[in-house]
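Form 7-S
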Amino acid sequence: MVPKTDSIKPTITDMISLEFVSHAKISPKGDKIAYCIRKTNWTKDRYENDCFIFDVEKNKTFQLTRYGKINQIAWINNESLAVLKEDPEMKENSNQVFVFEDLIGEPIQVTDHYNGIQTFEIFGKGLIYLAKAPDRAETKERKTKFGSFIHFEQEQSASALYYVEYEKMKNYFEGKKKKNGNNSKSLIKPVIEITKLLKEPLSILGYVVSPQNDAIYLTCQSRDDKVYDQETSTYQIKIKPTEALNAYLSKQDEKQPTDKKETKNKNDKEVLDDDLSYLGVLTRIALPIVSSIVNISPDGKKLLVARRERDNFYFTQSDLWTLDVDKWQPLLAKEEINDKLVKITGSLDRTPMNIHWVKEGIFCSHVEGTKTAIIHISKSGEISTLDLEGYSASLFNTFDVSESGRLCFLGFNSSKIEELYITQNAITVSKLEFIQITNFGKQIQNWRFGTVETIRWASKDGTEIEGVLRKPDGFDPKKKYPLVFIIHGGPASFDAETLLPRNSLYYYPGIQFSNLDILVLRVNYRGSIGRGQAFLELNKDNLGIGDMWDLESAIDYLEKQGFVDTNKIGCMGWSQGGYISAFVGIHSKRFKAVSVGAGIADWYTYHISNDIPQFTTHYLSGSPFRNRELYEKTAPISNIKNAQTPTLIQHGEIDQRVPLSNAKELYRGLKEMNVPVELFIYPGMGHPIIKPKENRTVMYQNLNWFSHYLLGEVLNLFDEKKMEK
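Output:
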């Protein structure tokens, strides 16, 4: 395809400035969609989300919010929307829930939790929200007595669930306005902590509320630290929310000292505080560890459980199981309950994601090679794939299904960027028709993206590997092009066949490489999702080594096609992709330059310093303190004496998933071997880089690094004029 004469080569700034839908929810009747658009605020160096409403019947869109960052949205009913809004100007108490009644006017604040809340769900006459309990999160008393310290991996969780009601909170806020200063402190905040029923503090990983508003289901682990992610437990809380809240308010009112009330003695107060029966009935559900309750049937009688049946290794897929909680209530706390689980995705051999349960059945998405699909699971367990007319459904944003059976999703393909769609008819029909709601394509009119296609090749051991190849506009098969690999993290993730990959907006300038006449290949190496369980575990005890086979065999395959310059090959990636880049950069002689983003240099260093040490024990068959052979064999640093590939290293300063020590070890080793190396540390950043100016710098550094080593351009990692473009 010959480029148009008026075509535009987008800059890195253009890419990061693109707007797109971050999340969307469809109203119960299916006639409205609330969705949030991510926008870039360059002045304040942050990403923001504004909420919009699309009226299907009127075919009109209006903006609902204009200030703050919307992190979650949920329909209360067909005319009112709750939003979790963060005020970026405030450091504390900023993430709170607001309600837009009738979708007009100023929103009404309905939570006022210290240091903000994390997530919420509509429940009863109000909502359930997840936050940290102030009395456990605060350590002022301990700090006063003992100074500041952290008991490593032994701190109790402050995680808690609360219930509030809209009308009571509205009255509470009105009361605060009418009272001055300390007088307002006598007001009782109408909020109850439901998880006081738990016998000990637990870290709440997830929660599901019954549509009948009579039960809450929790998935927990013993502490917040991810090292405890295999110490899970599940619970049912039977509750009458309004009665519980009223009982709490009555008890608190009894504590208030008045002239008409007698002061209760200490023992009376302790009894009052200890009696939590008004909150409901707690039952521990004896599900296997690492099971999680992910959804509930519309009638509230059955649970949907995600569970790994074979083992609990990270590379093992979960299946979906149903549990008739209404029928087997007497057995919930007994191990016999495991026999009552019914597997419904045994024939899928894929990881189900973004799960919804409506009256028409269960809907979820999964990866299929380099594409994604939405499937329907009927009551009888039959699985069918929805026809999305050639689109893949974005996994970054869950699709949604209304009570009326209409579906909305973000769709993309190899020639079109993500747009928001809604079905014109119910999902029960055989042929779906779609309405396109957004038009982000207008942002990229005449942009040069090249062409995108899925390719397949045989790796060194015969395994078929897939990748997404981007060819420049005007591609000439008789010409030899430089080639760069952009490797996804995970490893249990994937790259999709898409015109605009998400990491082209944050880390790696694939579009810019293409417009420099460089081929870009994103490899779904062994261990990626979308190819089944057997493929997922092909890198067990073979990390790095098998990945290098997959990349080097891709070079061989493309070389046979005749259009790759094998003297100009580069590789880059973040997280596991950074590890693979470091590995091939040191263990292979076929790469001219590599870039290591938040990557592992040494599995032993990684194991002792990260927040998920079980990752290495799962993938490398045990602890390095007992057997370090595999750790050394699969580590990039193990071949440092033979290193020769110029390496760019980028890392967040406070990264806990892949601690900074990995970047420093790699840097010191390459320096010692006189290999060209640069290390850039991003202050305040964790594992991801989450600010636009920093993202632009990361992308520019990668663009300049490979432009220098593959195209011979001047190496200048601090060119302010170019970085602004």
